[in-house]
Amino acid sequence: MTSTHDTSRPRVPAVPGRTDRAAAWLAVLACLPYLTLKTAWVAGSPVGIPPGSPLLDHSLVLRLANAGTVVMDGAVIVLVLLLVRPWGLRAPWWLLLVPAWIATGLLLPIVLGYPAQLLAGLLGASGGEAEPFLANWVFAVVYGGFIVQALALGTLFARYVARRWPDVVRARLGGLRPGGSQRAPQWLAAGTLALTPFPLALQLAWAAGASAGLDAPGSVNSRVVAATHACALLLAVAGTLSLTWRRPPRLPLGVPLAATWLGSGATLCWALWMLLPMVSGAAADETSPLLLLVHLVRTLVGALAGAGLVVALRARAGRTGTRGAA
């Protein structure tokens, strides 16, 4: 019997439907609390900032940083339009994938870490925390909005990829063939594998309560953050090695692509975010050489894994003849 099922079609409608529109509105609405707070801080309002908070010690730095993050969160709205409007399917690949990768990288540790921190608090494991630099309700409002953003954007992005690049969604890892120089993926994987153990060991040690490179053992919340960064490193290296060795061959190609996408983005974006106050002098007194080195190496790991992701996507594009697939 011959099946009449057309496997060439993506599993989502060819044009955005109700699910896409609902996710788009949810993502945009989730931006509003963060944008409102940041705009108030740029204007000089101390709302949500307790007296004595270090955020009040560098008012100019605070306002500049807040202005920059307002622009970043506003870019989410532009990204949503790219994902749901018909002209978004014709946009250059980099115009979509680069901001989507950055957004994923910034949001992933929050999606993983904040619920874990709340759970630790419910279990009574949050003792010994330092005085918060923001009111607790600010974290609930902002991080809750970020998690909603992440889920809505993730839904939109997955459905967009299924519409624009259905061959990638259907492909198996064993069908991936290198394009261009065959040594490039191997060198990128080797670099990622060689550099990852150092920051991974430190992040795991900090998650377990070690104080190497720190003034004192981290709080429960900071230990959760270290654990999420360790998870990102593991995703980056596992995804990169799987794409390079193309094993296991029957694994859907989307699995290692997603692992590399998530791990490389979170590792690079958060390492750079943590380096920013160190190199700008805002946190120079709290920076140890070991801490600085960890974030520098994490930056390299994220960059190498991200480059490996681009190479893999270009290899898939070259094999299928699909222009703009990478």
From TrEMBL:
Q: Which domain of life is it from?
A: Bacteria
Tell whether Oxidoreductase is among the UniProt keywords: no
Q: Where are the transmembrane segments?
A: 21-44, 64-84, 91-114, 134-162, 187-206, 226-245, 257-278, 290-313
Keywords of this entry: Membrane, Transmembrane, Transmembrane helix
**Mind telling me what this protein is named?**
Uncharacterized protein
The top of its lineage is:
Bacteria, Bacillati, Actinomycetota, Actinomycetes, Kitasatosporales
